[in-house]
Amino acid sequence: MRTYKTNPFRRWRIIAVLLAVLALVAAGCGNDDDDTSAPVATEAPATEAPTPPPTQAPEPEPEDTRGSQTTITLAVNPWNGSAANVAVAAQLLESELGYTVERVDIDENAQWASINTGDIDASLEVWPSGHADNVADFIDSADGNVDNAGLIGPVGEIGWFMPTYMVEREPALATWEGFADPALAGLFATAETGDKGQFLSGDPSWTIYDEQIINNLNLPLEIVYVGSEAGILAAVDAAYSREDPVLFYFWTPHSAFGSYDLTRVALPAYSDECYARDADGGIDCDYPEDALFKIVNADLAENAPDADHLLRAMSYSTADQIQMLAAIENDGMSVDDAAAAWIADNESVWSAWLPS
User: Fold this and answer.
1) Low-confidence ranges of the chain (pLDDT < 70)
2) What is the distance between the terminal CA atoms of the chain, rounded to a whole angstrom?
């Protein structure tokens, strides 16, 4: 029987191959273990910053429409109607529109040149019958810088007045012809006027034609100036309380007609032809009815448009003005307090004067 012997080199080669196979298998298993057991590093997502709320745009500041001029200067003429008008306008310009107001006491003729230059911005009660020349020079002229700012509302009438009890005693005094009689005119004489009757007037700066009327109608009367509206009223009150004669320059609208029974003396009727004789001193007729108006510096509309708007729009009734005058002259209120009371009661009137 034949015997076979194993070759040792062949045996080690087989072992080596088996070991290599086992090594590959082990390596494959090790990789599988790594894939399943080791966590895979992943990049954390970036954290986003919270979105801030949208920024709200600030409310726009209201447009200031007052203009570059913030102080308004108003003329106050020496009678309560003018002062009351100015007090109403001043309080509204300050409280509603934010202006500062200065008031200037000035007579009605001197104010025109000041308004023309802009030293004063406005006057709120012009009686047209006495200002034809000023209108021509400062409004109608190409060189003028004053605007007619429209009617203030009340209609004025200037005239000669006396207590009604004097007409009841002497009916002829109801007309100017009665005063042509020296005996009847003499009833009004005082120590200051001698044999002539006294004609009482206020401030010589007022627009008055009484000297012309007296001279041209040949009346035995002499003018005595007491300096103011208050002076006239004091003299009338003193005479009225004693039922003494008193003849005086006065006007409507005025609260005095609620306190005294007064009669207007009938003078020759007003005419344009009569007043055309003013330059020659030839006026011999009654005063005209006056639709009172306002005047403003022509530059105010650009420099202070809101103020200009209010002053041009300002208008109220004769009754409105008399309400304030009665509070001032009968109830003893200050001009500003009377104006404030009117403003408090009449918002529906003055609110229409404000710029929109």
Assistant:
1) 1-55, 57, 60-64
2) 139
